[in-house]
Design brief:
The protein is an alpha+beta fold. The chain has one domain: Outer membrane efflux proteins (OEP) (Up-down Bundle), CATH 1.20.1600.10. The chain contains 9 helices and 8 strands. The chain starts with 12 loop residues before the first strand and ends with a helix.
């Protein structure tokens, strides 16, 4: 199955122009942009990418010739024997002062391919760091999307609670009016008043939840100012395309940025292991110097040297062996990390698909239940006006309608969260949201 249908996996929030009464209005795209720009996790991964690029520059430098310059000035002890003793100058110093300046060049011809493999390892390190940046951006987008959806849901729940409170106030007024005309009882009015107070408490609780959701969204977005936020949009009322678990798992294993990061880290570890094994081989290099030497006895003149050099460490206390063992252990650990990640993704896919399907079914069922509860309330109200239903019947119908409306909002929020998590799994955590 093609991945094109996964473009519908990302949370679908229909942006509409809804003016907020206070604070700062935010669309989903704005929230995502702020999260990507201000997330500390993204900044940390970007710094790691810069570090990986610096490591690559260092590794690349080992492949080029090395030039160095030296300068010295020395005094020779007068009582010292000649540095070049002969039959004619025994016990005499040839010179007392020496000045020397030179330029030295070295090009490694063979080092067991350590340089090339180290360069390959740092290139893979850049790939891993770039995948880390992508993963952190996807995580930031997921957090912003879920936080935005939660705030939208709580705002909708506030509307539900506000509407429920208004219905309760209207019914209290109705029961008081009927009591005044002798068509009701004080018990009906007291029951209505008690339920009105419950509705008012529910509204206060909903407003508190809204403040908490705003605080959580500010944290996710990295907004330090305590400013009220208002999410501009509405939650989707449709599940979109159906999700097949095996297809989603295949897409996640192929496109999840965390998988890309671990794969690049494995390649980097393999290259590093090969590079340190190059320490068992000798280093062959071409070296040359060109300098100028001046002595107080014998005058001054330029000089040069050139040659082919072979250096082979015979004994180093097991340093190379230790490096090889360390690289092998790191590779084995990363292999297990990759296996653990695959198991984790499989579990997350299963949970996400289950949550998606459950939420989708809940949206449909809750929507139908809300419509049925609305009709039931209308019928109970009409019968109450005719004296064929009690106040308790109306109050019960009102409570059931409020619960059904809240259930619709909660199911929509659950569906939005499941869609956002599925988008993150298939690597659409950034692209899917930005495409809205």
């Amino acid at each position: 199955m093609q991945l094109s249908y996964f473009t519908t996996v990302a949370i679908v929030l229909v942006v509409v122009e809804v003016p907020a009464a206070f604070g700062r209005d935010l669309t989903l795209d704005e929230a995502v942009a702020i999260a990507k720009a201000q997330s500390p996790l993204v900044a940390i991964e970007q710094a790691r990418l810069d570090e990986a690029e610096a490591d690559d520059t260092v590794a690349r430098a080992a492949l080029f010739p090395r030039l160095s310059a030296s300068l010295s000035y020395a005094w020779l002890d007068d009582g010292r024997l000649s540095p070049l003793p002969s039959a004619t100058n025994v016990g005499m110093a040839l010179y007392g002062e020496e000045a020397y300046a030179a330029v030295r060049g070295k090009q490694v011809v063979f080092d067991g391919l350590r340089g090339w493999r180290a360069r390959s390892a740092t290139a893979r390190g850049i790939d891993a760091a770039q995948a880390g940046v992508t993963a952190s951006q996807a995580d930031a987008v997921l957090a912003a999307t879920v936080g935005f959806a939660r705030l939208l849901a709580v705002q909708s729940l506030c509307d539900v609670a506000r509407t429920a409170a208004e219905r309760q106030r209207a019914f209290v007024a109705l029961t008081r009016a009927r009591l005044a005309t002798g068509r009701g009882s004080e018990l009906d009015a007291l029951k209505a008043e008690a339920q009105r107070l419950d509705a008012e408490r529910a509204l206060v609780a909903a407003r508190g939840a809204e403040a908490s959701a705003q605080a959580q969204l500010r944290r996710v977005l990295g907004i330090e100012e305590v400013v009220p936020l208002s999410a501009v949009g509405v939650l989707a009322d449709s599940a979109g395309a159906s999700v097949d678990e095996s297809t989603l798992l295949g897409a996640a294993l192929a496109h999840d940025p965390d998988v890309g990061r671990v794969t690049a880290q494995l390649e980097q570890a393999r290259a590093l292991a090969a590079a340190v094994r190059g320490g068992y081989f000798p280093e062959v290099s071409v070296q040359g110097t060109y300098g100028y030497r001046r002595r107080d006895v014998g005058g001054e003149a330029p000089e040069w040297t050139a040659g082919l050099y072979l250096e082979w460490g015979i004994f180093e206390g097991g340093a190379t062996l230790g490096q090889v063992d360390k690289a092998a252990a790191r590779f084995a650990a990363l292999e297990e990390s990759a296996r653990a990640l695959r198991l984790q993704i499989a579990a997350e896919v299963s949970e996400t698909v289950s949550a998606w399907n459950t939420a989708a079914a809940s949206v449909e069922a809750s929507r139908e239940a809300a419509l049925a509860s609305e009709r039931a309330l209308e019928a109970a109200g009409a019968l109450y006006e005719l004296g064929r239903a009690t106040a308790l019947d109306v109050l019960t119908a009102q409570s059931e309608l409020s619960r059904a409306e809240a259930a619709v909002v909660q199911a929509q929020a659950d569906l939005a969260t499941a869609q956002a998590r599925a988008a993150r799994l298939v690597g659409l955590g950034v692209r899917g949201v930005e495409g809205q």
